[in-house]
Amino acid sequence: MYHREGWHDTGTVPGLNPHPLCQVLKLLIVAWDRRLIFTIGTSNTTGESDTVVWNEIHHKTEFGSNLTGHGYPDPNYLDNVLAELLAQGVSEATLKD
């Protein structure tokens, strides 16, 4: 679990090695290094403008249930996050660069 001071969300990548999410974590690290995880925009949650928001690469912020739609387990998460990463130019090929 990761928490950044001053940021109100916590993201989680459950069930690592040898789970397929291990590969997703590696790709998320590439996206983080490329500064693709967050952007400045209008919050879908609060409506506040000019604030730090997710940048179209969804993260799971609730573990053990999916009541909010942002939780895990989510049977579509792997396919969705891989497509979102690919749309940002992050794929398995980038791990070899």
UniProtKB/TrEMBL annotation:
Subcellular location(s) of the protein: Cytoplasm
Pathway entry: Protein modification; protein ubiquitination
Reactions catalysed: S-ubiquitinyl-[E2 ubiquitin-conjugating enzyme]-L-cysteine + [acceptor protein]-L-lysine = [E2 ubiquitin-conjugating enzyme]-L-cysteine + N(6)-ubiquitinyl-[acceptor protein]-L-lysine
MF terms (GO), sorted A to Z: ubiquitin protein ligase activity; zinc ion binding
Pfam families: DTC (PF18102)
Gene3D superfamilies: 3.30.390.130
Keywords per UniProt: Cytoplasm, Metal-binding, Transferase, Zinc, Zinc-finger
Broadest EC class assigned to this enzyme: transferase
InterPro entries assigned: Deltex_C (IPR039396), Deltex_C_sf (IPR039399), Deltex_fam (IPR039398)
Domain Deltex C-terminal: 23-90
EC number: 2.3.2.27
Keyword Hydrolase among record annotations: no
Similarity comment text for this entry: Belongs to the Deltex family.
UniProt name for this protein: E3 ubiquitin-protein ligase
